[in-house]
Amino acid sequence: MNVTSADGTSIFFEQRGDGPPVILVGGAFNDRTTTVGLAEVLAGDFTTIVYDRRGRGDSGDSAEYAVEREIEDIAALIAQAGGTASVFGHSSGAILALEAAAAGLPIERVVAYEPPYSTDEHQRADVVADVRARLAAGDRDGAVATFLKVAGTPEEMIEGMKQAPVWGWFTALAHTLPYDLTICGPEARPRTENLARIKVPTLVIGGGASDEALQSGARAAAAAVPGARHETLDGQDHGVLQFPETLKPLLTDFLKEASARPRMQ
């Protein structure tokens, strides 16, 4: 199915289950297929909505990118869902979910899993210009490697990935990496003035097995959102979408506190 965003871009989505709507937002190297597992796990209690962010999968794109366009995409999905929805975001998708709530979209509740903010203890270089330059030169491999390095992936692991099928998946989505870097912002520093405007219940989750930089970013996000709750999911890391059952108890308990909303149309 498709919805049309404010700028005319077609956004492809799928829905499952029945109950209060929850929109699942993936991060870098993600399309709707990477959030399907979580959608199916939650579908017994919620209407789950997975979608291809613009520039990915079966969704369209625009000539000029702005975070505001992706927020408008979420707004179109919320309208399709009946006017309100909760939102779950993973990685840069978590930052996008938080920014959507800060923009005042009719969001019931927000769950952010490891928004990759940098902190004073764990700073991150700003590589968006480098990634764009590599893409403009047709160097999709270099763009992916640059992104992975700044995300903290060891060089030897990147070299191993290049020999695996997953590398083709990464390079196919390389053109969207500037989108995720723009969402994260300069040096991935939290936009505290935006986060402070969030008025809806917010849960920020960090993986207990994740490196300290990601856990630190999750704590920083929770500290910046008024009244936000922070939880650590023991035994999980940034790849939690591969193990969606581990998220079910936390998400179900938190999201069920939302008021019942109209059914999906």
UniProtKB/TrEMBL annotation:
UniProt keyword list: Hydrolase
GO molecular function: triacylglycerol lipase activity
Span of domain AB hydrolase-1: 23-245
One Pfam family cited in the UniProt record for this chain: Abhydrolase_6
Transmembrane segments: none
GO biological process, one term: glycerolipid catabolic process
UniProt protein name: Alpha/beta hydrolase
